[in-house]
Prior knowledge:
The structure holds 2 protein chains of 2 kinds. Helix content of chain A is 20%, strand content 29%. Chain A is α+β, with helices and mostly antiparallel strands. Helices cover 45% and strands 26% of the residues of chain B. Chain B is built from 4 helices and 6 strands, in the order E-E-E-E-E-E-H-H-H-H. The longest helix of chain B has 29 residues, at 104-132. Chain B starts with 5 loop residues before the first strand and ends with a helix. The interface between A and B is medium-sized, with 34 and 35 residues.
Amino acid sequence: MIRDDTRNRFSFPKLVENPRDRSFLASWCFPVEYSVSFHQYQVVGRALPSESDEHPKIYRMKLWATNEVRAKSKFWYFLRKLKKVKKSNGQVLAINEIFEKSPTKIKNYGIWLRYQSRTGYHNMYKEYRDTTLNGAVEHMYNEMASRHRVRFPCIQIIKTATIPAKLCKRESSKQFHDSHIKFPLVFKKVRPPSRKLKTTYKASRPNLFM
Amino acid sequence: MPFKRYVEIGRVALVNYGKDYGKLVVIVDVIDQNRALVDAPDMVRSQMNFKRLSLTDIKIDIKRVPKKKTLIAAMEAADVKNKWENSSWGRKLIVQKRRASLNDFDRFKLMLAKIKRGGVIRQELSKLKKQSA
Lengths: 210, 133
């Protein structure tokens, strides 16, 4: 029996009392608020026991993937490169998701990565300010894709760390280390409060002043 | 011409898109150029894009990322709720909500009140016309 989770994600409201009251639209339009597509998994695996090796060494890896299936696949990809074991002669012992410990605290994340460009492999260090590590990793993948045209399969995350503010290297994260930060928003994006109310033509020109 | 409403810690903003539409939130920290950490007495502290926020004139006095209790106390001290409900923007939103929540009988009463008001205005106008004629 196949359970289709995605089908029931958007639940339509029951009969609306007053059709003029549009506040309900905002509540169901975005059932998943700010979902990061990347999850961090801990995958533990080893080669299958054989006559020559009764208790093969167990290896553990932390990696990022969108779902568990891809996490296990990525695990074997890395393990193949490091040890003489493949998925066909190995077994995954455990796969657990690692959740963010403090998702309401802003942290500076440093990500060390190795990526393959059109001309060879390079190392890189990038910094991101975010509340969760998964958010920072997603930000990194998006940025690598946009700035360097490097896609997910060509990026290997070497290391990630939470960097204290004093040790940040990039100006783009250091400029937000100001406890009296203050800046104006320069122009106002005029948009209807939900996609349902979007129209092609408007009666008046928008006022962009904040 | 210069800017009057700044993104700063303690700025009260109105959410204008998304799940928390219509809520008043306080900017508690700035994550980066596009996002802020916002908090309100009735929600979990979360991040929000500036595109979803409309800054208001109200600012409260808090340090960076205060505890929930401190935030609520500061909001009481600055009297955010009353300031908002007495501001012209806040009043307009309250009126919009009231109008949207009218039932048929209320709309009937509204119609009668409008007719009555129109009649009184026309009476005054005819009196003024007679005076000037």
